[in-house]
Specification:
Strand content: 5-15%
Oligomer: single chain
Structural class: alpha/beta
Radius of gyration: 24 Å
Strand order of the largest sheet: 11-10-9-5-2-1-13-12
Number of helices: 16
Number of strands: 20
Shape: globular
Bound molecules: 1-deoxynojirimycin
Length: about 575
Amino acid sequence: MHWERVAWVRVRGTCADRGDPAGPAPLVTSRHEPPDPAPGPRAAPVHGGVPVPVDDTPWWQRAVFYQIYPRSFADADGDGVGDLAGIRAHLDDLAWLGVDALWISPFFRSPMADFGYDVSDYCDVDPLFGDLAGFDALVADAHRLGLRVIIDWVPNHTSDRHPWFVDAASSQDSAHRDWYVWRDAEPDGSPPNNWVAAFDLTEPAWTFHEPTGQWYLHMFESAQPDLNWDEPAVESAMLDTLRFWLDRGVDGFRADVVHGIGKDPDLPDDPPEVAGIPHCALNDVPVTHERLRTIRTLLDGYPDDRVMVGEVFLMSTDAVATYYGHDDELQLAFNFPPLFAPWLADRWTSCIEDARRALDPRGAWPTWVLANHDNPRHRTRYDRAAARAGEDAATNARRSEARARAAAVLLLTLRGTPFVYQGDELGLEDADVPEDRQVDPGGRDGCRAPYPWDGTTDHGWPTTDGVTTWLPFPPGADSRNHDALADDPESILHLYRRTLTLRRKTPALVLGAMEMLVSPDGTLAYRRVLDGDVCTVLVNFGGEEIDVTALGWVGAEVLLASDDPAPTAGWSGVLGADQAVVLRG
Ligand code: NOJ
């Protein structure tokens, strides 16, 4: 694990005072005509005209989520930073693609020390992104298109400019002092324990606050003080923030470092063998489970299966599994080992087996993530790893998109809920961000580059008065942009769309059991089965074709191939280089 590359890795009651949800204004359409909107919230999904199989499983088990990092998705006001109106203007593109649900990363009021993960008001929209009425309109439009919306919730820490912390830091006797974690210095003046903060691993997870003479805890930046969930008023205030957004109609939350909301009350040193790893990757304390049960009860009190997917940033799938509780804590939890796994068949086999072994006995539903706003995009990661392993530049360039295509088929056909990170459907690579434009304390700018919508010079980000986008565009945006790829049926964008359409038509791929099959080294094979519906997925992780005729699928119907929009009906039995196929049967 390269920790330096693993990114990171109102007072109670007042939320309710915010304005009434505004009625939706007309949807701004972009290049794709939206399907006929069905009336009312949470309409039956109609993406691409293919109905979603409906049964009594909760929607989030059947859904494919699409992560939107709002600063970088689409900009409606020309200030070079994306916003909610920009997202709203492109909802029809997402419905066309065929995803089911959106996770929108933070858009709350924030000084932006961590680009929104430092919240100064949980119940308002930062003016950079719009306002509450704009958010309500976005949710209403999304629901009309059959798209669910979950939002980020940041319960572990606030901004140091949040009124709670401002008060807490005003004196040791302030009303909110105990809402944060304060401790005296050790006798030699050093911090209370050896915990290390994320981002800069030379920094302790503590900052000494001169005016009041104590250290305060922050697992991330010093501008992100950790809340003290042992204080009942904190729990109560944070539950109110959930109610605020649930009452506005969100379908759930992605809970940021949610395993952090319980801390060992003794704040013991991290053991020497892991000292130096950020404490946020180690914190795993029983009381958190109690708190998650309270949160779950709150969510279950709302209709329509409101969901919480927790970011449990622990590198053990067994540990992550415990955060599902016994169907009484998180409904979904991110499991990051696959996100850090190299593009190697045996490593993926282990990840899949680990997830099955840890989650199945609990009846816990897996999630699959290849990329997000905290880590290099998987295409970039796989290319870099191949180069490190000696792949020459020409081969690397040739195989690069093919690997990303095969990974897309894997992501969308494993048993569980997949999360697609914005731009992966374009096969984007990380931007090369020159030093003078780097802005993130965690070194994550590359994967956060603005989404190129078209091939014009501004790529659909029309800025005015010499303003530039907050980050440079990813490589190749002149041709690798949404509109160009939407016009090319052979593109990776169409591969994502085809795979999502196939998933929607194929109950086995959505809810079916998964059986691992024996296959040659360097490949992965699994069967998805639901009642009479059966299909088999084969993935070749290598750059040479592999003859698998001996396995017996010759002549099987090819439902999908990662490298061919119109594969021949009967399968040859030869798995192409860097190819993934889905076969019937
Ligand atoms: C995890 C988020 O994904 C990341 O972007 C953020 O910096 C940390 N949590 C702190 O909130």
